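FORM 7B - TANDEM STRUCTURE REPORT

SECTION 1: FIRST PROTEIN
SEQUENCE AND TOKENS:
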Amino acid sequence: MRVVTPRPAQTDWPRPPSCLRADQLRLPPDGARITVAGLVILRQRPGTAKGVIFLTLEDETGTVNIIVWRKLYERYRRAVIAGRMLRVTGRLQSEGDVIHVIAEVIEDISPLLDQLLAPAPEPAPKHAPEALSPDTQTG
């Protein structure tokens, strides 16, 4: 038996957080404007799709399917082609078990990945107790 979580009405959907995780995509109602982010694991441009691009992003909780219409692709071409990690804002499209985000804004946030490789900052040195000068030592 499959458990179906009821969706809130469009008017009940609060302003979303900066990015939803993949496992939260059932929370907003169909048509809600949301933002997601993740590593680009798949880019598809089928010949039969009339210029539509399909992206799959992955975050720590799962995958998100993104639809990029041709006109939007022309605007964000560089990010779509070269981005290793993207943040996408768009409209949620949900029908049954199939969930997509129809892209409206695409941002290449790949430079954030480089921060993962940066060495951790050195911890602040612990102050050693000040040594007593010979004239203050007791003996």
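SECTION 2: SECOND PROTEIN
SEQUENCE AND TOKENS:
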Amino acid sequence: MTNNLDSSGVSAGDRAISRSYLREFWSGMIAYFVILAAVLLWGQLDGDSPWRFVWALLPVLPALWLVVALLRHIRRIDDYQRQLLLQGLAAGFALAMLASVTFGFLAIAGLEVPGMAWIIYSIGMLGWLVASQVVKYR
């Protein structure tokens, strides 16, 4: 009898939660790409105007919205989904911190790596992605 109640599919509530998150996430990503394009086209980041620093920080605004979207998503999901998500986030954070310390010590020793911040960011995001998939299928 309970076999009929057990379902491996996604419930209507879970789909609604996912739609809400994706709507918030993609609106933030679209805003990010629009602002990033504007900055790259008109920001004159390689110039000498003090306004270039304001232009350079503009893409952070929609990135803040992405943080808010993630935090709202964490509050909406159930405990099990939250545990899986936070395990993936923790692994990504730990890898980003390890990469940061590694590049920091290399910089102290005199090795400057171009684009170091983007490499650290990429390691953290990739770690989050991979760890999330590992804990999901574990």
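SECTION 3: OBSERVATIONS ON SECOND PROTEIN
Helices lie at 2-5, 12-42, 51-57, 60-76, 79-108, 116-137.
The chain has six helices and no strands.

SECTION 4: SIGNATURE
Preparer initials: ____
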